[in-house]
Amino acid sequence: MNTDMYTENDLGEDSYGEETREESIIRLITTILRGKKSYYEGKPIISDYMYDEYEARLKKLAGSDHWVLNMVGYDPELAATYGFYVDDTYNYNQFTRRYYEFKT
Q1: How far apart are CA 23 and CA 28, in angstroms?
Q2: Nearest to residue 12, comparing CAs of 47, 51, 54?
Q3: Is 46 exposed, middle or buried (0-12, 13-18, 19+ CB in 10 A)?
Q4: How far apart are CA 92 and CA 27, in angstroms?
Q5: What is the pLDDT, as a whole number, of residue 93?
Q6: Exposure of 70 in the CB half-sphere (CA atoms within 13 A)
Q7: Could you tell me the pTM of the whole model?
Q8: 61 and 25 Cβ atoms separated by less than 8 Å
């Protein structure tokens, strides 16, 4: 297992109490996409348990029909259509800017 794994506290509900609902959704999307990408590259950064927790939180905030929850495998083209790009230089603020630019 990769030593750079996320832990339960990384996205704990108390850790980001100042976030808006939309910011929480963006954070969960980016974390899930990074998890999917790393898993399919053979270098998982999120445990199966935590991945399931992140998906459950996203489902609760965004609904079960959210495109990330319905993505099979890791599909960078699908993610890009929604304004999300996962690469080795991940930066939450870049994702947030891209997401808001995409929405406008």
Answers
A1: 9
A2: 54
A3: buried
A4: 7
A5: 53
A6: 7
A7: 0.70
A8: yes
Written as six digits, the tokens of 34 are: 């990074």
HEC secondary structure over the chain: CCCCCCCHHHHCCCCCCCCCHHHHHHHHHHHHHHHHHHHHCCCCCCCHHHHHHHHHHHHHHHCCCCCCCCCCCCCHHHHHHCCCCCCCCCCHHHHHHHHHHHHC
52-88 tens-digit pLDDT: 999 999 999 999 999 999 999 998 888 888 878 776 5
Q: Average per-residue pLDDT in the chain?
A: 76
Distance CA 78, CA 66 (A): 12
pLDDT of residue 104: 44
Specify the 3-state DSSP secondary structure of 102: helix
Contact 100, 80 (CB under 8 A): no
Query: Is residue 42 very low, low, confident or very high in pLDDT (cuts 50, 70, 90)?
Result: very high
The alpha-helical segments, DSSP class H, found in 41-91 are: 48-62, 76-81
